Amino acid sequence: MADGPELSPGARVTPRGAQVLDGGPGPDGAVRDEVDDLVAAWHAQRPDLDVEPMQVLSRVSRLARHLDLARRASFASRGLETWEFDVLSALRWQGPPYQMTPGALIRATLVTSGTMTNRIDRLAEAGLVRRKPDPRDRRGVLVTLTDQGRATADDALADLLRRERVLLASLGPDDQRTLAGLLRTLLAPFDALPPE
Fold this sequence. Notes:
Layout: E1 11-13, E2 19-21, H1 34-45, H2 53-76, H3 82-92, E3 99-100, H4 102-109, H5 113-125, E4 129-134, E5 137-145, H6 147-167, H7 173-191
Antiparallel strand pairs: 1-2, 3-5, 4-5
Helix pairs in contact: 1-2, 2-6, 3-6, 4-5
């Protein structure tokens, strides 16, 4: 048998030679995940680099993928695309009469004018929104949620929140509030930047 470093109990060696633990708690009792393996592998290969940002941002990235999958599944179960929910929910959270100008919808959903026109057309064809003249602007229109659109948005939101609670099930309410506060601190400077 070749000589090499002694493995810690429950550890394995990655194809690149980094020693990592196979899931479960680490030596300090903390839960380990695939990001721990990734960070350990990069640290072994590039000890000259500080790979600590990966501890946070790789997890944020992986959680974003899980959330995206949950969103897609939730909306698909109601025959919606993600972009359809984004437009419907932007109208829904306005409260009665559930309407916005196309320009306000563009700002709320961060898409181009041409893209929004296409989306409004498709939602109107599906009976989820309707256009009506803007009484404050002779040339303007308002996009209004129909009763069917409101019911669709409400059903999709309820299902999405159920799936999101599953994603957060390992955290208690206090931990969720703490995490939300930390993420808010991290995200706020980016939200303050003007859209590209």
